[in-house]
């Protein structure tokens, strides 16, 4: 794609060129000319035309600026190539010209400066347009065109394009053709909602009133397939107009959107923050991988320098191309290869679709830790970036720590009272549950907080932190994208240790961190999650230690019983391989009624975490999301 544009001023270091010959030689005048060309002040140089008539230096300055056209704001670097050659009273000097074009490309070429020795023995520059470039004549000027390469795709784990150029239709209006603006807004809203498109067009009347009545005022951009569903309905509305375009898009609007980001027209803020890098008409990445790897995906910009001549006056004025004198080909962008699985990603997106709360679902492969899906209900990547308490999903970690220390076995009787008090602070179970003295596996499956509070002293000062780190929490991960790896409570007061035993206190995690920890339990060893394979992580974290086989097998047994007899029983009839997991609710402020909802678990080779912000009871928010996801994979 080519875009013609005016060059933004770029400040260049302009060292003054000094003469290196004798004081009476032509080299002194050549050097003064080159210095004046760069600085815009030629008063120190004498000029004549090819016929020998004197020319004011100011006229030459004006001519150079006019001939330079769109390069006038960026005068070239100029160097004299050796000593001038002299034949009687005529000297000829070769000069190397080096223009720095927008985007950084260099256009270099030699030109010739001729001089004539006057009666006063002073050398005067013979001025003519071809001194600037040999194809220039009076009335010509340089014009620059910018040529961009096709943007490279983001690929899924199978190497197939996820984000690629797709057809869209820009829906807009022409204000002077609208019959009634208020009714139009209502009709547009109804049409968009009929295909599940939510767009705020409350400001459309004001934007239309401020625009030229005959101009196109954009309303929304729709994927072509969505537009076709309501095409007739929209076209029947007086004043609507439509533009066919192409945009770089994922298969659906929601497809891993917070991870991938979007590709959109450059905004004023982008231009202001990156002077000279973008021009109006460019499309660039905003957010996620599209923004972080924008330079790689966009590739290098090409430039074409042309000589043009403007003819005519007023409305009849036109620009004629005379010659193309330089071309730097655009450099194609390089694709990004992710580990996403398109089928699993679409199942994750569908599981969250319509959820009224901020929510995230991240899935990783048990056998190698690669990320199969990253879904969020909004544009914020909560799946990777959230820093929130894990609630009872952390009993997976606490149980592993207790088993490693020999504090319990699956069948150790552990009391589960309705309430527990630690240093004056009262704790209770969800729904005021009380199980009495039951096997530890039952406490786990039914998610008894008070049982874990009673066992908290057996964890020691750093038991949770040690086990959490063995599961990858708090680690330094190089993923090529930001991710929060968690912070595990260590030591502290008796109440802090009690709270931490069931995922409260100061412990915070991200869904990705919990999904990776869950995959470690399923596999028997933690491996760093990976979402990008090209470019690959430079310093991927080393695998964690092999987990104690007896302890981790006991945790797996209990996580299966969560599904068969415990708080995750809604998942027991999921088709396919057995489902393992742990529910969780997590208080996030001083009001016990305010809780996030969690689920972590796995089926076959897919481990995943579900997080629903302010979701309340996991049985009515996170578990249904998990069920919808797993049924979508079946």
Automatic annotation (TrEMBL):
GO biological process: cell division; cell wall organization; response to antibiotic
Record's GO cellular component terms: plasma membrane
Keyword tags: Cell cycle, Cell division, Membrane
Cellular location(s): Membrane
Residue ranges constituting the NTF2-like N-terminal transpeptidase domain according to the UniProt record: 26-139
Principal location listed in the UniProt entry: membrane
Penicillin-binding protein transpeptidase domain ranges (all copies): 362-630
Pfam family, any one: MecA_N
UniProt GO molecular function: penicillin binding; peptidoglycan L,D-transpeptidase activity
Superkingdom, natural source: Bacteria
Domain Penicillin-binding protein dimerisation: 148-313
Signal sequence, renumbered to the chain: none
Family of the protein in this entry: Belongs to the transpeptidase family.
Protein name per its UniProtKB record: Cell division protein FtsI
